[in-house]
Amino acid sequence: MPAPSQIHDSIAGWLSKTLTRAARARLISDEWEDTMEVLPGPEYEGFIGNYAGRKKAPDTAFCPVSGPGRLHLAEFPAVVLETGHTTSTPKLFGDAALWRDGSNHQVKAVIVVKFYPPNVQNRVKVVLTIFSAYPRVNSRATRQKTYTIFPAPARRVPNPSIPLNYLYAGRCPGSMSSRARLTLDLELLRNTIVPYIHERGNLPA
């Protein structure tokens, strides 16, 4: 039976598949490898305001390489992934606020995936929520959009997407279109996490 950490890893695997698809579609160029670090669990500090003194490590961080010659990692990631198995929804949403507000909005989007405890039929509900700068990459306002993964909706819901420019915190390399969008395929997410749910002796809701 996989540990909760393996459930977290399944979401990171979904993002990896998403990037592979984007590369095949030539959405991201070869320059991606030189200008972006996708890091598992790096710890950040230096938050401001109500979050001063806090330290936080996301499950996955998209960290643009910035500065002259692109030799330095940005102070904060541009996009982060947070996965909750035992963590409550309010705590996860609070973490999203920490990333957006505590980084002085240097974090442009927070992807939150929440696995709920199995119900009496051993069925697991899973919900994806995306917090992102709105309506532009440098906006201080945050838009929240929620997508139910399990139970899968009867009608197909359009896939969400994140502008490539958000992944680069507004400084997209010239070899890639800042208007291009990284599609977050919901059906791919379902297919990726189902084996992990089954391995825990549960079923998707």
SSE topology:
Layout: H1 4-24, H2 32-35, E1 36-40, E2 60-66, E3 72-73, E4 79-84, H3 89-102, E5 109-115, E6 123-124, E7 126-133, E8 142-150, E9 161-163, H4 164-167, E10 181-183, H5 186-199, E11 203-204
Parallel strand pairs: 4-5, 6-11
Antiparallel strand pairs: 1-2, 2-3, 2-4, 5-7, 7-8, 9-10
Helix pairs in contact: 1-5
| Distance between the amino and carboxyl termini | 19 Å
What proportion strand?
25-35%
Q: With helices defined by DSSP (H or I, 4 residues minimum), what is the helix count?
A: 5
Overall pLDDT = 92
Give the ordered list of helices and strands. Answer: HHEEEEHEEEEEHEHE
What structural class do the secondary elements suggest? alpha+beta
Name of the top-level CATH class: Alpha Beta
Gyration radius, rounded? 17 Å
- Provide the CATH topology: tt1808, chain A
**How many domains would you count in the coordinates?**
1
Low-confidence stretches: none
* Assigned CATH architecture: Alpha-Beta Complex
Q: Given the C-alpha coordinates, what overall shape results? A: globular
Notable characteristics:
single chain, 205 residues, alpha+beta, tt1808, chain A, two-stranded parallel sheet, 26% strand, globular
Short description:
The protein contains five helices and eleven strands; from the N terminus they run H-H-E-E-E-E-H-E-E-E-E-E-H-E-H-E. It is of the alpha+beta class.
